[in-house]
Amino acid sequence: MIARIALRLSPALLAGACAAAACDPGSAGFFGGIGCAVGHGYQDRTLSLQNASANVQQQAIASEANAQEQERNATAAQAETARLRKQVADMRKGQTALRRQLAAAQARRGAQDADVQRAQGDLNALEAQLRAAQSAPAPDAAQVQRLNAQRQAVLAELGALSQ
Q1: How many angstroms separate the CA atoms of 129 and 149, rounded?
Q2: Which of 2, 47, 65, 111 yields a CA-CA distance of 20 to 30 A from 12?
Q3: In this predicted model, what pLDDT tens digit does every residue of 49-84 receive, in sequence order?
Q4: Quick check: helix, strand or coil at residue 154?
Q5: CA torsion sign, 11 to 17 to 22 to 23?
Q6: What is the pTM of this model?
Q7: Which residue from 25, 24, 30 is spatially nearest to 10, judged by alpha carbons?
Q8: DSSP class of residue 92?
């Protein structure tokens, strides 16, 4: 009688063993392993692990693409910074010509002339701002644009003085 009951309960015990072990080959016992093999638990676990692996691979591909995009952005930012630095350096080099124009205006109109003094003050302010921009870690485009506009205004002012 006990043997009959045991035989009738064995499929239920096998299924229960499979559910309890969650079909992990490392932790399933004998009956659990048989239950998982018969009940397709191992196949389900393998499929689940394959799906998880595919998701991780997709995330890795997306992360790599993101890293490449960030690298391109960093390279573009470095190129822009180099371009702005060169522009500031070129403006600083052009200051010598502006100083010569100012000296010529001073010689013609006199150093005490109000327009000459204003032009000298504007030129001094521009030089100070150019020095600050050149020593800054990374000048921004708006700042360089303002400096260029200021330089053009000083250039026009000195041009008017030389007439």
Answers
A1: 12
A2: 47
A3: 899 999 999 999 999 999 999 999 999 999 999 999
A4: helix
A5: negative
A6: 0.57
A7: 30
A8: H
